[in-house]
Amino acid sequence: MKSYKEMTREELLAEKESLDRAFEEVKAKNLSLDMSRGKPSTEQLELSHKMMDVLYSQSYFNDETGNDCRNYGTLTGIPEAKRLMGAMSEVGPDDMIIFGNSSLNIMFDTISRSMTHGVMGSTPWCKLDKVKFLCPVPGYDRHFRITEFFGIEMINVPMSPTGPDMDMVEEYVNNDPAVKGIWCVPKYSNPQGYTYSEETVKRFAALKPAAPDFRIFWDNAYSIHHLYEDPKKQDYLLEILSECRKAGNPDIVYKFISTSKVTFPGAGIAALASSKNNLEEIKKYMTVQTIGHNKMNQLMHVRFFGNLPNMLEHMKRHAAILRPKFELVEEKLSAELGGLGIAEWTKPNGGYFVSFESMPGCAKAIVAKAAEAGVKLTGAGATYPYGKDPKDSNIRIAPSYPEIEELSAALDVFTLAVKLVSVEACLAGSDD
Ligand code: PMP
Asked: How many angstroms is it from 104 CA to the middle of ligand 1?
């Protein structure tokens, strides 16, 4: 098929007429489908059901050092959980603290603490006139909502397949002392599924921040979330903590992980890896905040997995469920939109999302059009700070939750909505 931009006005009008008819037929089906959030499907959750059999009334509830996990104590996590989460995060057990059920919660607390008490003796951020954060875009909406909540000014940094625009990152971080942090999802990024290149990671580690309390918020949420078993189709990310150490910048990064998309979202375990200095500071606050996190859950996770290789086997079972869904997205988008010159999208090797770029000014209208036909998508703009996508072109596709038949129906509606909104935009731009 000809690209929309090559079509004459008459051809565009004919295309619109046939799309309008197809859209009315879809609307009449009264669909109710959801492609909005990156949640594991029910089938994926069932993969971890046997973890519920690991602890029962007759279980031995002590950790490997003999400490009773039913009781208070062991503030920073049981040793075997540190080993397992450390292995998942490619750091040693002493480089991390195990927290509660959510890495996002650790990120929120870390920023909250920096606001009220400062970072390692620096002025609390709340006492400064201006605090800025760099936000690679498109990015994860919940990151942006944390910094917005604390009144931190957010600066968009464009993403590319190798990571954020590092010239811009260096320019800001190395010269502006008000820049205190950057949000990063370095592997299988949300929403593009991009993985930062080795050069990008090394440039991060070698930053020379103007602010001594600048920190990289390295959210490695998708560290082991490959879609393919073939190593050639798995992305590789250089380990940032050791790179920072080598570059003489050991304290510059906080690295977050969780098992939310390994076992149960909201009921997994989360951890933070960082330098000795950072961990010591965090421990001081932790003694005030809690007497200890949920060690029974830590015990359940470590006894279920035993070690990282078993966890990686488990991730292959997730991938077997997710892969056909991602392949269906690629297949449908290529078949319906390929060659029309109205959209581009990513083809990730892992993670939970596909990032879709429509013609400028069309994303909101596409999301609204899909909703009119019963398909819920992530709100347009959500992938940008303040919910403002300057080009109104990015849409995050989240294929994990719906069953494959539902996903297929949702994608049909989505591609129809894209074509309809795009043909209207082309007609509006064409001469009468
Ligand atoms: N970070 C990213 C990049 C995510 O996509 C998600 C979940 N969608 C989270 C963090 C949330 O993690 P948790 O459940 O550990 O809070």
From this structure: 6
With beta carbons less than 8 A apart as the criterion, state whether 341 and 334 touch.
Answer: no
Question: 200 CB under 6 A from ligand 1?
Answer: no
| Minimal-distance CA residue to ligand 1 atom 2 | 221
Q: Using the predicted structure, report yes or no on whether residue 431 has a pLDDT greater than 70.
A: no
> Is the minimum distance from the CB of 219 to ligand 1 under 6 angstroms?
yes
Indicate whether residue 90 lines ligand 1 (CB < 6 A).
no
pLDDT one-digit tens code per residue, 94-129: 999 999 999 999 999 999 999 999 999 999 999 999
Nearest residue by C-alpha to atom 11 in ligand 1? 104
CB 80 less than 6 A from any atom of ligand 1? no
Q: Calculate how far, in angstroms, residue 85's C-alpha sits from the geometric centre of ligand 1.
A: 16
Q: Taking residues 311-335, what's their average pLDDT?
A: 98
pLDDT on residue 362: 98
Parallel, antiparallel, or unpaired for β 96-98 and 132-137?
Answer: unpaired
| Nearest atom, ligand 1, residue 185 CA | 3
319, 74 Cβ separation under 8 angstroms: no
pLDDT given at position 429: 82
Cα dist from 176 to 109, 263, 410, whole Å: 24, 41, 45
Residues in CB range of 86: below 8 A, 6 or more apart: 92, 93, 95, 96, 273
Q: What is the pLDDT of residue 1?
A: 77
184 lines ligand 1 (CB under 6 A): no
Report, as an integer, the average pLDDT of 280-285.
96
Q: What would the pLDDT profile of 52-83 be if each residue is shown by its tens digit?
A: 999 999 999 999 999 999 999 999 999 999 99
Q: Which of 385, 414, 389 shows the shortest CA–CA distance to 399?
A: 414
Do 270 and 101 form a contact (C-beta atoms < 8 A)?
A: yes
Query: pTM here?
Result: 0.97
pLDDT score at 262: 98
The predicted pLDDT at position 67 comes to: 97
Q: State if residue 169 touches ligand 1 by the CB under 6 angstroms criterion.
A: no
